[in-house]
Amino acid sequence: MSLLKVADPLTTEDAVAERYAAAAQVREAALCCPVSYAGDYLAAIPQEILERDYGCGDPSRHVQPGETVLDLGSGGGKLCYILSQAVGPQGRVIGVDCNPEMLALARKYRDEVARRIGYGNVEFRHGLIQDLQLDLDRVNDALGRHPVGSTADWMSLRSLEDRLRQEAPLVADGSIDCVVSNCVLNLVRQQDRRQLFAEIFRVLKTGGRAAISDIVADEDVPEHHQRNPQLWSGCVSGAFREEAFLRAFEDAGFHGMTVAERQATPWRVVDGIEFRSVTVIAYKGKQGPCLDRNQAVIYRGPFKKVEDDDGHVYYRGERMAVCDKLYRLVQRDPYAGQFELVAPHDEVPLETAPTFDCRPAARRPPQVTKGPSAVQNSPAEDACCSPNGTCG
Known about the structure:
Distance between the termini: 67 Å
Radius of gyration: 26 Å
Shape: globular
CATH architecture of the largest domain: 3-Layer(aba) Sandwich
Number of helices: 13
Structural class: alpha/beta
CATH topology of the largest domain: Rossmann fold
């Protein structure tokens, strides 16, 4: 297909704001992919919200009851109202969006949805997803009292923003179990994307995760396409390249990135570049000191060897030395079940454990597990065979 020509001087941010403001009023079918959502959650959501939904995946499949979930770019609120039912009355859902029209639509039905499902656990906050510290409703209140009419006013506003980030952040550090998003990260400007992933990491609890559905490209999107406001606001030319999307999580400090879903048939093809939906799960929790407690893990297979995000190599069937942090990490998702745990014969107290040398591919001798007395042969009667000499 041929590209649309740029016919106006709008920036990409202007185009996104205008297009989604209009899409909050009248449905636009060209925005993102059709999505089927899991569960029977749609019955509780008003039709006006259902008609104004724009997404490319269903990250709600990856949340658990009782969790606190943050939805980035929550739009008209459809995903938040699905999430509210998925996490249940003990859970909590926070939607963040910068578009006033979309926020108004989402907030309009909050009480009605709470009445339909029997509880209210959703709130919508006004902010930029790449700056989850700044509460834009508070900024609007300040501007109403003190409009910016000079450079001195502008400097004062900047100081206020800094104070708000420190004293009343929109989303606090380490407060979220799961961050989700549905076809929104690709709308953020290139120069803001490192901060975007850093913010996702900041707000997550240790052990938390991100479940992000977004559009990716199989090739680099040329710069002149990226400058096309209509293609950018349509979730096309701002798409991450497939492997760069995963690397952005890695660069922010995440581990265990997993492509949970990948659209086989491209959603769009523009000048030979394929654009498709993916859902990526990424985890927070590998940070902290590496302490040696003589633990080991054995990779079960099926591959001959695997390498983790920090360059540690695990050979199938071999006792690989790990630090205490990694020993505990491989017992959780997404690694659970892939490793056999090998505890030492003599446990090393955490408070006296020395620093672990994180050189790759270090083995643990079997004697560390068995202890020094295990070098002698065990008597036959202590083996797996029965007294008559048969085994089984």
